[in-house]
């Protein structure tokens, strides 16, 4: 059991993180204090041209030197600092959160076929696979993930998230089952500007993991949420599938539903299911996946995990529980439970995909 | 008496107290074990194939068949089999031929793999109440789907090639008309049509009686090319090139001339009474590029409308071969493990050549994934699948679907006596003798095969449901849901499966 | 084009799928005479086509599996043919006004193949006959080894023109049906297992003579059977391997 939450202002109006922390904290019952985190979009306007790498360091000596050497093989660091935190020593298994604002150097990528984003993906995969005391957990532009092994309110306080202002926030409160509660295992998971919060357990993990690994992703964090992040990156960024179809690929319609569709739609859904059968996610899940443009929320196709969507003016809210949404916005225009497997897509206006 | 004498293996005893002298045993035994002698039944146990036909027809339960133990001096190396094979070959100077699959006591990997089930952290799913999808599409899939438009106006820009749709991932393996009787093939055909799956024609052409079932038949093109003509290729759901067989990797097959009767000669399009010889390799395939040529020749001949499968025996480098097949425009690779059945194979090959299907599936699936071409081709596994758990494990290791051969025969009454090559099968399965063939009623045969496959499909759904999976594609290659029990590290490594407890 | 059911196709710059599709579509449109120019290794020409009146003339080098599975058409190649022309063909005629590669007529079960020049290895391998279907291969020059291996029916004639040795080794290995006629001497050491020499009778002479006439007609040559001495090779048994096996205890 976990709690997930998200909000987006479609006009791009930025608010600080205290609201989302309040909503998430209302769902403390869904977690166990072993992991919580937030993803915030639009928080680094001064550095928006640069990739913001959030890294957990084991120490400020070898681990830091190591990771910086690797990063500098791919480009140059514009600015770096320890992520400001409070109450040092109050959270178990503490890591040192550090951030680098980074620009890949095309000259260093010479002779490579891939583009800048592929380079970032490969760099992150390499650093994380090495397990040398540094873990990159956030790597997008003008966005950042903040997470730790603690209760939601403690994490919010630790990272001082009320000092950040974003137009979109995701939050997660963890009740770990398959893997121990460690900082890297907390949600959101991120890659490039993707961030994912996830409630449930993906029973198709072994199939999905092997699928993404055959395209060069490395699953190093011992958890199924990581694989969701890579699936989205693969289907949307690499394969250019529309968001809605991506949702259908990952939570496919049942064959008897597909067979009954109009021929054109049926052919698309059949082809989608055939092509992406190894990407389809099985088992109970509710996820919210965001990138710079907006988010998609999705549950498994028999709704084994809850998801509620609400809206007020230009702000959309999504959460495991209605109460968490109402805690953030008491007077909603609309609130509803989406259908099982039905992708809920919301984007910044003027950024329709 | 001779010095190469081999003791009789079984005792056949007819209890005179019970026997009613109805002679059903005499009529039913095609091997000549029984003879009426005035008021008693004489037995000739050295002819006995342990096929149980007599027992099942004896109304008085008077017949007992038991192992006749003739003590040899015990020796761990020079066991009975070793000595008897030598006596046999010293007497005849010939290659030993045997029926059915590998008869050596190799450890069975399936029996040392256990499946997973959900407990609390995710729910198991009850297939009786909730949808549980076992539909499989066999064939090439694009690596990436390109579309244009949005929502309901989405249009496909990627064209898909033809696939076979199976409602259950279990198909009936190729057994040729000739190796088995027409009634056997008819039983299979009716069963697979009912179930929405497929059967293989084997290498023997297609008998007219099977034409109505053509949409559920995969026709085989083997090295002998028996019965292969344009109408044969077009009268099929898919075409399968047979390059190898698990029971006898690397060699061909001979259907003895005495089995080639008028009907079989017509179906195979060859002269009556002549040996039907399938050479070891296809003589138009001496290399992988030649395979591509044959695959494409078959596709050209059928206007690129039929999926083409390629069947190989599971051998050491099966994974590399499969990758080559994937790049030869083939739609599926069929891999037949070393326990695969056969009507007849030289014992030395049957028992000593090839690798277990479990390892072959795992290594092929892995190789294709590593090369990023898993979507190019489906994997069909066969060779010794005895029950639903074997096939479920095969799918979890990476197979898309399986073929069952022996199990389908057993469903119709086959006792695995292994005397298929005699052509005397008393159950009407591996025979062409009219009186024997008529013992197998295709209606009944179909029902029994259908029952078996239905039961297995249901068990597969239960196993999937227990693992919290409601669609077969999420089981495929999901090795995280398997654990190895007392498998050594090397095998675990090949299977990419963790040990129990891990 | 003089006939309305005739068509000329230029293969230059086309891949074989495009070319063969064009041929198939022409046939479906009722075209009976097709001339294909600039053929250079295009494979699978006339593959699987069932049509008794269709005639295709090919100018250039015909690629592998020419006329494979074909049932009826006549193909005339003005040039050489590569690997396995007439593979598993059911009926029809393939005439190659040049040389052909390995495996000519592999598993062929009907129709005729005439090759003016020489052919490669394993020609006529596993050819078989059935009722009215009777495959025939006539080779003007020489054939390499394994000629008629596993042959199960039909006729192979090797005329041995302009060569020192008409056939290679292992002639008719595993042969269990059909006949091979070789103009010239075949050394006993060159015979395969299960093949044996038989007397060349008057009946054989009539058969071969008719085929030579046909050959002469196709290639405008004037070979006479009177100038040739034939060795006739047939199976020693319909069951070459019946004595190979004993059974398991």
Compact summary:
The complex is a heterotrimer of chains A (353), B (502) and C (249). Chain A has 10 helices and 18 strands.
The helix-strand sequence of chain A is: EEHEEHEEHEEHEEEEHHHHHEEEEHEE
CATH superfamily of the domain at 99-235 in chain C: Glutamate synthase, alpha subunit, C-terminal domain
Radius of gyration of chain C: 19 Å
The number of strands of chain A is 18
In total, the number of strands of chain C is 12
Task: Tell me the β content of chain A.
Answer: 25-35%
Keywords:
heterotrimer; A: 353 residues; alpha+beta; Glutamine Phosphoribosylpyrophosphate, subunit 1, domain 1; 18 strands; 28% helix; globular; C: 249 residues; alpha/beta; 12% helix
Descriptive overview:
The complex is a heterotrimer of chains A (353), B (502) and C (249). Chain A is an alpha+beta fold. Chain A has helices at residues 18-25, 62-72, 116-130, 152-158, 205-213, 224-238, 243-250, 255-259, 263-275, 322-328; strands at residues 3-9, 15-16, 36-41, 51-57, 75-82, 96-104, 134-138, 143-148, 165-166, 168-173, 189-191, 194-200, 285-291, 294-299, 308-312, 315-319, 334-336, 344-347. Chain A has a single domain, classed as Aminohydrolase, N-terminal nucleophile (Ntn) domain (Glutamine Phosphoribosylpyrophosphate, subunit 1, domain 1). In chain A, strand 13 (285-291) and strand 14 form a beta hairpin. Chain B has 2 domains: 10-94, Alpha-Beta Plaits; 165-477, Aldolase class I (TIM Barrel, Alpha-Beta Barrel). In chain B, the strands form 8 sheets. In chain B, strands 11-21-20-18-17-14-13-12 form an 8-stranded parallel β-sheet. Chain B has a 3-stranded mixed β-sheet with strand order 6-22-23, covered by helices on one side. A two-stranded antiparallel sheet of chain B has the order 1-4. Chain C has 249 residues and is α/β, with parallel strands linked by helices. Chain C has a domain at 99-235: Glutamate synthase, alpha subunit, C-terminal domain (Pectate Lyase C-like, 3 Solenoid), CATH 2.160.20.60. Chain C is built from 2 helices and 12 strands. Chain C has helices at residues 16-28, 202-219, and strands at residues 6-10, 33-40, 55-61, 71-78, 91-96, 112-115, 136-139, 152-158, 177-183, 195-198, 230-235, 245-247. The longest helix of chain C has 18 residues, at 202-219. Classes of the chains: A alpha+beta (353), B alpha/beta (502), C alpha/beta (249). Chains in contact: A-B, B-C.
